[in-house]
């Protein structure tokens, strides 16, 4: 062995000792205790209930239970696909899912970038509170407000009448359902997303802004070339998390905005499951629909995660 190799071996750091899980838990037990409630929640309400997905392949009976119910294979999935209104329901869900992804998802990003440019702290807090409070309202309340605003004597028709226009029953019009869905979603949920993005923005090194200001960069240029690129990892993470529920738009919102005249454009899988599966006690069929939605969501998450890792330096979720 040459002197150079001996010196290299002597200067090399000693190999790290592998710590076992038990010793690691003993050393950092307070952190494991903090994580424990979340682990229990996901085990109890997310992973263990996944075992119930087996009833999608059964003719499930509450009296026979999981073991005694007859196995029917893909019968429930065939019933879903051959359902006369399947194409209409799938199309409605797909269109509203695209609206949620393309039109609603970017709003919190834009809003957080704009809020970050507000230098008056009092004004900034007032705006943050105003956009954040609607998130805590239930969709029952929001649905009632929407019906009041667009009703015969509501604000919408009062403004129309003021300009000499006829009264319009917007909630009974098919062409108005999707715009109202988008507007109500933005009003209620945009504030929640801004909290995450503002937290990501607060972690940006202030020296980057200072050096760019010295170089003469405008506020818009700093937002475009510093703020937005540095929050892209947070944007990608939330996008991948939301794309998993692409076909799960939420029963509460759509159900509270639907009217018999807007079923043709507003009836989605969630409302269909409630109407056909829950009310008629077709539990196996309901589970099959939910499994179909989850499978589509899993495929989308895996696809977009792979694309994010391929075309973005920030990578995906894993």
Which labels suit this protein?
MetI-like fold; mainly alpha; 318 residues; 1% strand; two-stranded antiparallel sheet; single chain; globular
Q: How is the secondary structure organized here?
A:
Elements: H1 3-11, H2 21-27, H3 29-47, E1 58-59, H4 65-68, E2 70-71, H5 75-81, H6 86-104, H7 106-116, H8 121-132, H9 139-149, H10 155-162, H11 174-202, H12 206-214, H13 219-230, H14 232-243, H15 251-257, H16 263-266, H17 269-278, H18 283-311
Antiparallel strand pairs: 1-2
Task: Give the structure's gist in a few sentences.
This protein is mainly α and 318 residues long.
Task: Please tell me about this protein's structure.
The chain is mainly alpha-helical. The protein has a single domain, classed as MetI-like (MetI-like fold), CATH 1.10.3720.10. Helix 14 packs antiparallel against helix 18 and helix 17 runs antiparallel to helix 18. The longest helix is centred in the middle third of the chain and has 29 residues.
């Amino acid at each position: 062995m040459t002197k150079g190799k001996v010196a290299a071996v002597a200067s090399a750091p000693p190999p790290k000792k592998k710590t076992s899980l038990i010793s690691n838990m003993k050393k950092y037990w307070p952190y494991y205790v903090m994580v424990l409630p979340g682990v229990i929640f996901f085990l109890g309400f997310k992973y263990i209930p996944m075992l119930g997905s087996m009833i999608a392949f059964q003719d499930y009976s509450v009296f026979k239970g999981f073991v005694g119910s007859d196995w029917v294979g893909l019968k429930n999935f065939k019933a879903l696909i051959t359902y006369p209104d399947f194409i209409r329901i799938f199309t409605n869900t797909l269109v509203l899912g695209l609206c949620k992804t393309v039109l609603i998802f970017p709003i919190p990003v834009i809003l957080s970038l704009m809020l970050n440019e507000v230098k008056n702290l009092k004004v900034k807090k007032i705006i943050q509170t105003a956009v954040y409070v609607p998130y805590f309202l239930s969709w029952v309340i929001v649905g009632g407000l929407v019906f009041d605003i667009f009703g015969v004597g509501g604000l919408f028709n009062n403004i129309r009448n003021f300009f000499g226009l006829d009264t319009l029953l917007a909630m009974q019009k098919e062409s108005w359902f999707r715009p109202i869905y988008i507007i109500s979603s933005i009003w209620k949920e945009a504030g929640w997303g801004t909290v995450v993005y503002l937290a990501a923005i607060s972690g940006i090194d202030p020296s980057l802004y200072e050096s760019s200001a010295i170089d003469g960069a405008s506020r818009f240029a700093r937002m475009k070339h510093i703020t937005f690129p540095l929050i892209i990892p947070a944007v990608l993470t939330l996008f991948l998390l939301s794309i998993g529920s692409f076909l799960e738009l939420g029963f509460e919102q759509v159900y509270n905005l639907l009217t018999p005249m807007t079923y043709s454009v507003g009836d989605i899988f969630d409302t269909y499951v409630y109407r056909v599966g829950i009310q008629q006690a077709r539990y196996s069929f309901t589970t099959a629909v939910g499994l179909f939605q989850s499978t589509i969501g899993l495929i989308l998450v895996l696809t977009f995660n792979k694309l994010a890792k391929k075309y973005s330096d920030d990578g995906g979720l894993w």
